[in-house]
Write a structure and sequence with these properties.
By secondary structure, this protein is of the alpha/beta class. It is built from 8 helices and 10 strands. 33% of the residues lie in helices and 24% in strands. It has a 7-stranded mixed beta sheet, with helices on both faces. A 3-stranded mixed beta sheet has the order 1-8-7, with no helix packed on it.
């Protein structure tokens, strides 16, 4: 039975996500230690940083923005690859996540500034970053917030800067739907709102003035050598659950 048929047959309704509901869910996840290992940045942070270094080169960048930094799992992989002269900016909609960042990483000289996204008088300056990392974010956004995030990334990047985006590849959203037995609400367990392909993601970013520097459906747990010569490793790339996009301003 398809999801839409289930909704019609039973007294259920599909969730209407608001910023308040989104923040409530992610405050819960970020403060529950049992969910720590489910974060993509926890599982694949090291591989993502290696991917960035391979296709962009971390030596090229000085100022990095982790846009949607969450609890800071990516930072643990990023910090060893940077120098004290690098500047890392962290931004997230969750105040509790930003509090965790400050608690864990305040002693690192690279952590330059933190921002609570959407908070009044807390705007990230123009043309400040060489690299904006947006890890597993774009699948969570409605049309309004998606446009806001992408245009913000463009504004924040320096000319020639890179926008690194990861998202699930061709995700079947129905596979992760859950039902609240209390209110009958049907919602995606990880609050995903949309599914992306190489074509739709590249097209959308082009509409927002980014030039596609690199885009690939891949398995991020592959090695550099495997990524360089994917045809030699057909079994490794038989399944490509991850979608990587790199845009250039």
């Amino acid at each position: 039975m398809k999801l839409k048929d289930l909704i019609m047959k039973q007294k259920t309704h599909k969730i209407s996500w608001t910023d308040e509901k989104v923040n409530l869910l992610w405050d819960f996840y970020s403060n529950n230690p049992h969910y720590k290992k489910t974060y993509f940045s926890y599982q694949a942070g090291t591989q993502i940083i290696d991917y960035i270094d391979q296709f962009i080169g971390l030596k090229k960048v000085k100022t990095i923005l982790d846009y949607g930094c969450g609890a800071g799992h990516l930072l643990k992989a990023l910090l060893p690859m940077t120098k004290p002269t690098n500047q890392i900016i962290c931004a997230d909609t969750s105040e509790k996540s930003i509090e965790k960042i400050k608690e864990q990483f305040s002693h690192h000289p690279q952590i330059n500034k933190t921002y609570i996204l959407g908070k009044e008088n807390n705007e990230i300056p123009n043309n400040i970053a060489d690299l904006v990392i947006c890890l597993e974010v774009v699948e969570h956004l409605n049309d309004f917030n998606l446009e806001k995030v992408v245009t913000e990334a463009y504004r924040i990047l320096k000319k020639g800067g890179f926008f690194f985006v990861s998202t699930p590849n061709s995700e079947d959203l129905d596979a992760a739907m859950r039902l609240c037995p209390d209110c009958g609400c049907i919602f995606h367990q990880w609050q995903h709102m949309r599914s992306w392909t190489t074509e739709t993601l590249s097209s959308y970013m082009s509409e927002k003035n980014f030039n596609t520097y690199h885009i690939r459906a891949t398995n991020v747990f592959s090695s550099r050598f495997e990524r360089r010569f994917p045809k030699l490793f057909p079994n490794r790339f038989k399944n490509t659950p991850n979608l990587i996009y790199i845009g250039k301003k």
